[in-house]
Amino acid sequence: MESEVTSVPSGPNEKVDELEESATKTQFKFCCPLNWCTTEYYSIDKYDDSIRVGGESELKSVSSSATNKGESDEDKEVNKVKDRSPTSQTVTKELDELEESATKTQNDPVNGAKHSDKYDDSIRVGGESEINSVSSSATNKGEPDEDKEVNTVNDTSSTSQTVSPVTKEQDELEESAAKTQFKFCCPLNWCTTEYYSIDKYDDSIRVGGESELKSVSSSATNKGESDEDKEVNKVKDRSPTSQTVSPVTKEQDELEESATKTQNDPVNGAKHSDKYDDSIRVGGESEINSVSSSATNKGEPDEDKEVNTVNDTSSTSQTVSPVTKEQDELEESAAKTECDPVKQPADVEHSKNDGNTTVGGESEITPVQSTATEKVHYSMVGNMDMSGNMDKKSVEFSEGISRKKQHQRETEALLDRLQLPDKQQQKLSPADVLKVGPPVKQNHDMSEKDVAHTFIQKLMMLDYRARYIPVRQDSPEVSHSNPVKVSDTDDTDDDNLDALYSTNVNSDQSDLKTHVHPMDVQMAVFHCSDSFFKQNMITKLSQCQYALPLLVPDPVTMDIGCPLWTFRQIRKTWKKTEMKDNTNIVNMKSMPICKAETPMVSFLRLGSPSLSKSELMNTLINNRHKTFFDRNCPGSTKSRHLMDGVAEIAWYCPAGKPSDAFTDCIAFCNLHGDALSNVKQRDILTDKSSVNVVLVPTLEKNDKSSAVISALHKSTKPLIILIADSDGGAVQMKKGKYKMGLNDKSQSDVSEELKKIIGKILSGSHETFKLESMAEVSGVKLDEDDKACQKGKSAAMKIVDLLQGMDVSKIKDTYLPCQGQLWKEWCKINKELYHLKGNTENEKCEKQEKLMQIRQEQCKASCSEPMKLFIESLSSLSATEKDYFLKWTQILTDALSTDDLGSILQSYDKKWAEVLDLKNKHVKSDLKRKQTELDEISTQLQSATFGLEHIFREMGQIYEAHASPQKQPERGQTDWSKYPELAAELMISGHPMELMDGDAGHVPLTWISGLLDEVIKKLGDRRVFVLSVLGVQSSGKSTMLNAMFGLQFAVSAGRCTKGAFMQLVEVSEEIKEDFEFDYVLVVDTEGLRALELEGKATLHHDNELATFVVGLGNMTLINIFGENPAEMQDILQIVVQAFMRMKKIKLSPSCVFVHQNVTDIAATEKNMDGKRRLQEKLDKMAQLAAKEEVCDAECFSDVIAFDVQKDVKYFAQLWEGSPPMAPPNPGYSESVQDLKTTILSKAKQSAGITLSQFKSKIQDLWNALMNEQFVFSFKNTFEIAVYRKLEVQYGNWTWTLRSNMLTIEDGLHTKIQNGKLDKVELNHLHQESNKTYDEIKKAMTTYFDDDRDKDMLVQWRGRFESKIKEFHDELLRGVQRKLDEVIQQKGACRKLNDKKTLFENKLLQKSKELAHQLKDKAEDEEELKKQFNSVWSDLVTELTKDIKPIEDINYEEDQSTVLYELGFEWSLINESKRSVKYKKIAEVGDYVHYVSLNKHHGHENDMESDTIGQRFLEFVSEQTTKMKYSWKGYFQDEEQQLIRSFIDDVEKQSLDAIKSKPVATRGYSLTYLQEVANDVKQKVTEFESTRKYALKKEFTVDLLLYVFHRAERWLSESHMTFKGNNDAHSYVESKKMQYYNIFTSFCKGSSSAVVLGQLICDKLKSSTEEAVYNKTAIDFTDEMKCNYPAFNGNRSNLEKHVLKSLAEKEDFDDFITYIHHPRKQAETYIREEVRKYISTGQGKGKAQNILKKNVDDINRLVSQALYEATEKVKTHKGGPDMWMDEFSSLLKDKLTFNTISCQNFSDLNSFDFLKEEIEKGLVSIIKELSSLSLDNMKKFRMKPDEILIDQLCDCCWVKCPFCAAVCTNTINDHKEDHSVSFHRSAAVMGWHIRNTVDLSIEFCTTSIASDGSFYPNRDSEVVIPYKKYRTAGPNFANWAITPDGSKLEYWKWFVSRFEKKLEDHYGLKFQNYGEIPSEWKTHSKEQAIKSLDEMFKL
Question: pTM (2 decimals)?
Answer without folding.
Answer: 0.69
